[in-house]
Amino acid sequence: MRVDPMTFAAIVAMGIVTYFTRIAGIFVGSRLNLHGRAKAAFDAIPPAVLIAVIAPTALATGWPETLAALIAAAVATRVPLLATIAIGVIAVVVLRGLI
Amino acid sequence: MLDSAEARDFRSGLRDIFPVMVAAFPIGLLFGALCVAKGLSVMEAGLMSILVFAGGAQFAAVEMWTYPVPLAALVFSTLLINSRHILMSASLTPKLKDFSLPQTLGAFFFLTDESWALAERRALRERVTPAYWFACAMMLPISWIGSTFLGAWLGSFLGDPHRIGADFAFTALFIGLTANFWKGGRTGMTIAASAIASAVAWKMIGPPWHVAAGAFAGILTAYLTASEDDA
């Protein structure tokens, strides 16, 4: 069972940061009562980060990836998560074969 | 004993978390398989699910994973994606009246979108007791960690993930996760700004800066398109 020291350090650091976010709210309490623009900005963090991570694959890799991403986006609000993944993967395999 | 209030709360917690455990299992299999495809070992994949235990941040980390390990970028991305936990624990803390501070500190190690949502829902009707929370929150890691190890182990027999389109599973997964945060047209503008800024930064500067560039552009767009009167 290989565990690379640098990989282990990165995983531990990620774990510490994550635990910090989980307990920070205990101490912030009622002071963090966001509203208006600040609330909108905070709520936008998860979608903005998720999309930023995948944008190079979705937009700057090739037509099969871009089209499959659009297909996945079109079904994402209508079907369960696993179905979105399956449809996206099948679409990219088919499109890679065609284009 | 089995009919005590504690035992009843424990059983309610188990009943509420069960569907979430079922849903998490295939996602964990996928996570493990993608880890191995990126060069992580089975043990490293499992350790990440044990120590980090936050699906979105873990998938983002594996997507960004290269050698040498980009430690600062991984920590930054993890902090950004998990910053929502701050609001979740801030909202839940006043509802955990039966918890001591050490119990709360232990309870929140297991805070996830799902356990948070279940506890908030329960708090609308009755007290969220330690028996309920720990049944609910501590069962989910069994499914997540177990499926990660299994997926990583199976993934090592799978070969090149590109051949079966498994490399694209990340992208499709993240699109599916983003749909959970959809709140109408303004979310669309946030997503468009993030996608364009990220792709441009990736072309012009290269990874891992695309994550910070896209996140910043998306968050700024949300700030500018909202009004101060929004709830």
| Count of folded domains of chain A | 1
Q: Could you give a short account of the major beta sheet of chain A? A: none
| Tally of DSSP β-strands of chain A | 0
What is the CA-atom radius of gyration of chain B, in angstroms? Answer: 19 Å
Average of pLDDT of chain A: 89
| Content of β-strand of chain A | under 5%
Question: What proportion strand of chain B?
Answer: under 5%
Helix content of chain A: over 70%
Order of helices and strands of chain B: HHHHHHHHHHH
**CA-based shape of chain A:** extended
The termini of chain B sit apart by 46 Å
Query: Strand-and-helix sequence of chain A, N→C?
Result: HHHHH
Number of helices of chain B: 11
Q: Uncertain segments of chain A of ≥5 residues (pLDDT<50)?
A: none
Written overview of the protein:
The complex is a heterodimer of chains A (99) and B (231). Chain A has helices at 5-28, 36-43, 45-60, 63-76, 81-98. The N and C termini of chain A lie far apart (41 Å). In chain A, 81% of the residues lie in helices and 0% in strands. Chain B is globular, with a radius of gyration of 19 Å. In chain B, helix 1 runs parallel beside helix 8 (130-155). Chain B has helices at residues 5-37, 42-51, 55-64, 71-82, 84-92, 101-107, 113-123, 130-155, 169-179, 185-204, 209-225. Chain B is mainly alpha-helical and 231 residues long. The interface between A and B is large, with 74 and 103 residues.
Quick summary of this structure?
The complex is a heterodimer of chains A (about 100) and B (about 230). With about 100 residues, chain A is an all-alpha fold. Helices cover about 80% and strands about 0% of the residues of chain A.
